[in-house]
Write a structure and sequence with these properties.
277 residues; alpha/beta; Nucleotidyltransferase, domain 5; 5-stranded mixed β-sheet; globular
């Protein structure tokens, strides 16, 4: 199947403390106390190595994505940016957010692109959809035994850049910010994932969405460089795709100041060299 659309996505989450009483029997009602109990549980089951909640214990508060059209020319491809946007509102309804994601996903039938999405983002989305009774048949039924969203090595269906770049475990896992530093991309600036829960508690859902969108842009730029390296994306196609991003940022509304900040950080990281000679 030749997908017509790239769908680069990222999610932001906060711990799901509603499940704590069922998980450990801890009945204190306070949010802070339940978060501490959830961390205690995960430290216990990992012998003190990791207090980060496992995938089912994350509540999705924002989903950001970049959509691009794929144009094929023999074995090569070119990408044309269509939009960058986010879901997640003040007083958000997680079920509504997830339902909208999976409905749009089935409508587009895209090639998914993520960074650590196969290990974290997509499992979280699946667990949370199951918790709300949301069906996602296309995720499981499309393709065949070897080529599908469920196949780890089928990067035409879901390209998890972390998995691809580390050769599926042959080399050490790296962070998006680490690869971005080498490639002259902005990476993390101003906000990181550890601040999301605090921002949500302060009612700053827009700030969370903005942060998520910058992660998506970093992921897309890294995908472009990866496909250039693989010979799938020609150099002029790479430069065209980068020019599309710059044009989008230059024409962004005034209420999307995070894109201007991204552009400034990108210029600083790359010495204002965006296009490859």
């Amino acid at each position: 199947m030749q997908h017509q659309t790239l769908f680069v996505f990222d999610i932001e989450t906060v711990p799901d403390t509603d499940a704590v009483p069922n998980l450990t029997g801890f009945r204190e009602p306070g949010e802070e106390a339940r978060r501490a109990e959830l961390e205690r549980y995960h430290l216990e089951i990992t012998d003190g190595r990791n207090g980060f909640p496992r995938q089912p214990f994350h509540r999705v508060v924002a989903i950001s994505f970049l959509e691009a059209e794929i144009e094929y020319s023999g074995v090569q491809e070119t990408y044309y940016l269509k939009e960058l946007r986010s879901g997640g509102e003040i007083g958000f309804d997680e079920a509504q957010l997830l339902r909208g994601f999976f409905q749009y996903f089935e409508y587009l039938k895209p090639r998914l692109v993520s960074f650590n999405g196969r290990t974290f983002d997509l499992p979280v989305l699946k667990y949370r959809a199951m918790a709300h009774g949301i069906a996602a048949p296309w995720l499981y039924g499309a393709g065949d035994k070897w080529n599908s969203y469920m196949s780890r090595y089928s990067i035409d269906w879901h390209c998890d850049l972390l998995d691809v770049l580390r050769d599926y475990g042959a080399s050490t896992a790296v962070k998006l910010s680490e690869v971005s530093a080498v490639m002259g991309l902005p990476g993390k600036f101003g906000v990181d994932g550890s601040k999301v829960a605090e921002m949500i508690e302060a009612g700053d859902i827009q700030g969370v969405r903005d942060y998520c969108e910058t992660d998506v842009l970093n992921t897309y730029l890294l995908y472009l460089r990866t496909m250039l390296h693989r010979g799938t994306l020609p150099r002029d196609g790479y430069n065209r795709a980068v020019a599309d991003i710059i044009t989008m940022i230059e024409h962004a509304d005034d209420n999307r100041q995070h894109l201007e900040s991204f552009m400034l950080a990108w210029g600083e990281a790359s010495n204002n060299t965006f296009i490859l000679e």
